[in-house]
Amino acid sequence: MIWVDQIVEEIATRFHDKIAEGKPLIIRDEKTLSGRVHVGSLRGIVIHGLVSQVLSMRNIQNTFKFELNDFDPMDGLPIYVDQEQYRPHMGKPLFAVPAHEPGAENYPMVFGKELQRVVEPLRLPIEYYTLRPLYETGKFNEVIREALDNAEKIRTIYYEVSRGKKADDWHPLSVICEQCGRVGTTQVTGWDGEKVHYTCKEHYVKWAEGCGHRGSISPFDGNAKLPWKVEWPAKWKVLGVDVEGAGKDHYAAGGSREIGRRISEEVFHNPEPLNIPYEFFNFKGKKMSASKGLGASAKEIADLLPPTLLKLLMIRKVPNQPIDLDPEGATIPTLFDEYDRLADHYFRRHPEPYEGYARTFQLTQIDPIVPPKDLWKMRFTVLSFILQMPHLTLREEAVKLKGSPLNADEFAALEERAKYVLPWLKNYAPEEFIYKILKEPLSDLKLDPAQVTALKALKTALASPSLVWEGAPIHETIHLVKAEQAIEPKNLFQPLYQLFLGRTSGPQVGWFLSTFQREEVLRRIDAVVS
Ligand SMILES: [Zn+2]
Q: Is the pLDDT of residue 211 over 60?
């Protein structure tokens, strides 16, 4: 049983009664829209989305709600916005900050739309919502009252869990200042059951400056928001959340998840949702916009991989193990190869099919309910080789390699793969994946006598008119010569690559030679043995 099936099993047990009553389970995740969506956020989205899909496959009703958080205070200035223009907005609720690009209603939704665009090809069953309307329509009024009534208890929980000492008059609420519109700079110092008293402090936070205003206002209907460590468990109650995972930065001892759990149980009297703790998604690409100080955005990763492969990258490991992606290393070719290997298990081509791999392959599909078609796929390394060879045509080589014509779906799959291989070759591929055909074989190629003898014998065999000039028969011929000459395979194969590539390795040798004219192969062998 793979990890997602285990989690779904746990969910089915824990929420047995709710499921039996036919009530949909609520799965939730969120992203604060304070900047471009970093790759790390994708992991949570895919984990929650997959849990939702697998629950649905088991006919367990559920809704995956994803919050586009537009209400947190603006607490950082990304380098890709005009610094002078945006500095005055620091401390305001994100929704009150104007958009820096056309087409979005405000600043956070520029990032919200980017996130939706990146996630869309994965077709996860996501129901998006923004936070602000929940406050403005009074959905948070009850939890705000509970939090204010229990201000002292919350201060104690903060202290017990994280040793964070709050002032005795600190209340868990941030009012939107009636004078300057900031929410990050205000401190509530009193609550009389109807109104809160607050001060907009000049030096309350490092990243924004308050205006000094003091006032009293109703804390309800969007006038104020809860600080996020209190707001998190408040959302669990308001939305009735049953399942919500947390990234590593939140679930450490003394972290926000622990504070959230205690506030949830002791203040809101609501159980903590089932947790799925997940590790970081580490990104190692130096060439990505990390160089511009942005870190890799989710969009850049999504542009690198087709949706199924992106999904595979996110689900192939159990959530509590980190994922590493280095597009400049072998990660991407390896991922494609893994996908093909999983397909072999799913389609029972593997001599000992393993259910876990087959299941992973099924769940990697964009719609995991529809049985995937068994399509012939060209290996990533072969495809990347062909695309670098000006004398080869992708479609023709595909037919030769498959040994029969490709159907329309297979051609489409081939073209799709090529679409991702080309930019990878251009921008990220390490040296070992780069091939160039030499105009002439290297003049200083060193061969020992056994190699010369074997190559001469091979030349004669390859010259035979009875040999059909195709990958498989050439491959057999090379192996026959190798056996007759009793030569180490690498001692025969390496010079064959060196003749054309100036390097000792390459794609499958029989097919490789078949991509050249027979006369050209014979000429090059001749040039080094005579
Ligand atoms: Zn103010």
A: yes
CA of 90 to the centre of ligand 1 (A): 12
The 10s digit of each residue's pLDDT in 414-445 is 999 999 999 999 989 998 899 999 998 887 88
Rounded to the nearest angstrom, the distance between the alpha carbon of 217 and the centre of ligand 1 is: 13
Q: How many CB atoms lie within 10 A of CB 148?
A: 21
Give the pLDDT mean for 500-523: 93
Count of structural domains within the chain: 4
Q: What is the DSSP string of 429-464?
A: --GGG-----SS--TT----HHHHHHHHHHHHHHH-
- Domain shared by 411 and 496, yes or no: no
Q: How far is the CA of 191 from the centre of ligand 1 (A)?
A: 19
Residue 346 pLDDT class (50, 70, 90 cuts): very high
The answer to whether residues 21 and 47 belong to one domain is: yes
* Rounded distance from Cα 190 to ligand 1 centre (Å): 17
Are 506 and 435 in contact, with CB atoms under 8 Å apart? yes
Q: Which amino acid is at 202?
A: E
Residues 10 and 88 reside in one and the same domain: yes
Please report, for the domain that includes residue 478, its CATH number: 1.10.10.350
Helix H or strand E segment including 201: none
Q: What does the pLDDT read at residue 170? A: 96
Indicate the SS3 state at residue 88.
Answer: helix
Residue 216 Cα to ligand 1 midpoint, Å, equals 13
Other CB atoms within a 10 A radius of the CB of residue 21 amount to: 8
Cα of 179 from ligand 1 centre, angstroms = 5
* Per-residue confidence band for 327, with pLDDT thresholds at 50, 70 and 90: confident
Q: How far is the CA of 223 from the centre of ligand 1 (A)?
A: 13
Residue 333 lies in a domain: no
In which element (H, E) is residue 482 found? helix 471-485
Query: Does 258 lie in the same domain as 119?
Result: yes
* Terminal Cα-to-Cα distance of the chain (whole angstroms): 61
Q: Are residues 401 and 470 in the same domain?
A: no
pTM above 0.70, yes or no: yes
> Is residue 330 domain-resident?
no
For the stretch 224-241, pLDDT in tens is 999 999 999 999 999 999
CA of 56 to the centre of ligand 1 (A): 48
Verify that 65 and 18 share a domain, yes or no: yes
Q: Would residue 168 count as lying in a domain?
A: yes
- Judgement on whether residues 389 and 500 belong to the same structural domain of the protein: no
CA of 87 to the centre of ligand 1 (A): 15
The per-residue pLDDT for 295 is 56
Taking the mean position of all CA atoms in its chain, how far away is CA 244?
18
Could you tell me if 407 and 270 lie in one domain? no
Residue-range definition of the domain harbouring residue 420: 375-435
For residue range 31-69, list pLDDT tens digits in order.
999 998 887 788 999 999 999 999 999 999 999 999 999
